[in-house]
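Why should sequence recovery work at all? Because a backbone constrains its sequence more than one might expect. Tight turns favour small or flexible residues, buried strands favour hydrophobic ones, and helices have their own preferences. The token representation captures these environments compactly. In the example below, the structure is given first.
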């Protein structure tokens, strides 16, 4: 349960509803797994039946790890997520998970407006409950789209700047006697290949230039014993 609360908090959800929860739940383990998501558990609602729990919901998506009668129209969480989020803008929606050992009961499926099937290998389709919660809620979270990666702080280095960096490295190779002079051009081609496999920013190039210049300075100014 603690891991479920944490998965919910990771995906921006905070309304936990339990149907006939076990009275023997390990509270110490729950708190250890939930960490800062513990308030979700403390603010939970409890009901005696699934019907009561979903009474005010505009959509009820139930998960099922098996095929069979009443379950053939299931969709993946990724397929269903856009429609569920659209409904959630007008009415609460419920994502219902069965018990860890038995999953959803067939008689409970009548309350479902959507059936969800998490893609998994055919040899073992049963997924740990807390992992299932994370997989489904994460698909919903991605539809909301309020996550963005940080932008690069400096622009890509232009060709002129890159060539200055390569000149520094060519000189450094010469100063530290990295290879014989006649092989240095070949080694520089190899270094160019390494450093141009991806985009280098201006900051990246400044660091690489500084490293090459320091190597040249050390080769010329440090006593031979200090260079080792």
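From this structural description, the recovered sequence reads:
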């Amino acid at each position: 349960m603690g891991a479920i609360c944490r998965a919910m908090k990771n995906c921006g959800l905070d309304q936990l509803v339990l149907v006939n929860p076990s009275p023997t739940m390990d509270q110490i383990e729950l708190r250890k797994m939930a960490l800062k998501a513990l308030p979700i558990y403390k603010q939970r609602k409890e009901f005696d039946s699934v019907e009561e729990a979903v009474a005010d919901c505009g959509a009820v998506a139930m998960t099922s790890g098996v095929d069979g009668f009443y379950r053939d129209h299931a969709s993946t969480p990724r397929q269903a997520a856009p429609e569920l989020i659209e409904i959630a803008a007008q009415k609460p929606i419920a994502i219902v998970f069965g018990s860890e050992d038995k999953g959803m009961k067939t008689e409970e499926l009548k309350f479902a407006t959507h059936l969800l099937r998490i893609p998994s290998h055919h040899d073992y389709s049963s997924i740990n409950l807390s992992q299932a919660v994370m997989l489904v809620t994460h698909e919903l979270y991605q539809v909301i789209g309020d996550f963005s990666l940080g932008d690069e702080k400096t622009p890509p280095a232009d060709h002129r700047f890159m060539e200055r960096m390569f000149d520094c490295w060519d000189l450094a190779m010469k100063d530290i006697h990295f290879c014989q002079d006649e092989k240095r051009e070949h080694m520089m081609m190899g270094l160019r290949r390494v450093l141009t496999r991806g985009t280098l920013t201006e900051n990246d190039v400044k660091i690489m230039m500084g490293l090459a210049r320091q190597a040249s300075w050390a080769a010329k100014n440090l006593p031979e014993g200090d260079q080792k």
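A few observations help interpret the result. The mean pLDDT is 90.
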